[in-house]
Amino acid sequence: MNTINYTNQKRAVIYVRVSTKEQVDEGNSLGTQQKICNDYAIKNEYEIAETFIEQGESAKTADRTELQKLLTYCAEKKNGVKAVIIYKLDRLSRNTDDYSQLRLLLKRYGVEIKSTSEHFENNPVGRFMENTMANIAQFDNDIRSERCAGGMRDAMRDGRYVWMATIGYRNVKIAGRATIEQDEIMAPLILRTFELIASNVYPTEEVRRIMTKEGLLNKKGKPFSKGYFYAMLTNELFAGWIVKFGERHRGTFAPIIPDELFSQVQRVLKHKGRKHSAYITDHPDFPLRKFIINANGKKLTGSWTKGRSKRYPSYRFGGNKSNHNRDKFEEEFMKYVNKYKFDDTKIKRLKELVRENLVKATFDQHKEADRLKKYINELTEKQTGIIKKNLDGIIPDNVLKQQLAMIDKELLNANASLAVMPNTETNYEEAVEFLEEYLKNPSAVWKDAKIGVKTKLQWFQFPLGLTFENNFFGTTEMCLFFKAKEAFLPLKSSTVDRTGLEPATPTLQMWCSTR
Fold this sequence. Notes:
The chain has 17 helices and 14 strands.
């Protein structure tokens, strides 16, 4: 605040204000306003007690820092303030209600409002003109707001999103016009999130946990809250739709989520109480947990045990107080896994069979995907037909509700089945290379894999899990690939029975996509 002292007994304060946009307008700049107010004070023989400068704050509200300081200063009788000098009424307020309240409050303090560019006498005509100018300021502010909203509405109708971009998008200008585009880092994570939900395998909260580990974080680098995560899953902006002002328009920007995938996620969320889960007990520190049982049928668990100076990872079986050192236990597990590894001679023949069966398995998957798509279209048409019959009065509302619920459940299941199918062409060589790497050294591949892949590898090789009795591992069922090592791939045999090899290939493809 600046202070200028005069010997005259009339004391006044100066209030100047600009908004951010007005700072570029020299006619309304702080310096110009202050000079005009100073000249007015000198001309009318006012001593300037204080100057309050408001920078970059709107006059739409009275809750402004310098304005509140001004009111506090005027309320102190010892300051002897008789007038508040302003450049124009709209510097003080653009809201007629706020202006009236300010004028009454200042009047109670014995302070008048003096405008350098508008002269109001203390008579009926002067007060009428003062109210008129306040109304004009309010009208001007309303027009600006309406133009701003109107511009946003026009942009929306053109398919442009002109608000702050949500996670997964970023604000850009294309041909000088504001809109949004996909963020190349976050958009794939958003897509992956919707795909996991659409598969109807994991609970919503589990997907949130999984995607947080994969890097799905908010703009502050923190995990999404449960509420924000759910709001994201129901936000049509990700499907390319702008919903504002009670209207819904297709955006010109590329959507992150296809329409059908978005619809499937909404169906899953609607039936969220009916979801099942797979591998939701996976723990990166204890991959063998719940995979191995002892002679009493108790499952293996894992936890960190607190020692004197640090914590130790241990496995134990339910109901058993004795612990197994995690690292040593996993070393023994890897030794057991390696008992089934292949040598180069047998792998060569198996690779030939895998290539053939991968082609067949992929063909079957495409065929099944086409069948599901056709079934989904039929259900959608049936849905439309039932609604039409209800509108025509052929079927009552209660029957409509029952039929739509049944169709919606069928759509949920069909889309969930479709969602877990590979939607890209299979890289056969990559799949075969992964198979060769795993069969040659299964323990090394398992050890280096992420927790999700580790778990799948375990259950792939040993479909019923393992037993642990008298410090030895055992199994009652083994993957058909490893059975083929002895049963189907004798070293001197050139003919191999293909029966039993086909079921393993979809799992192999799943590994590669995960990898």
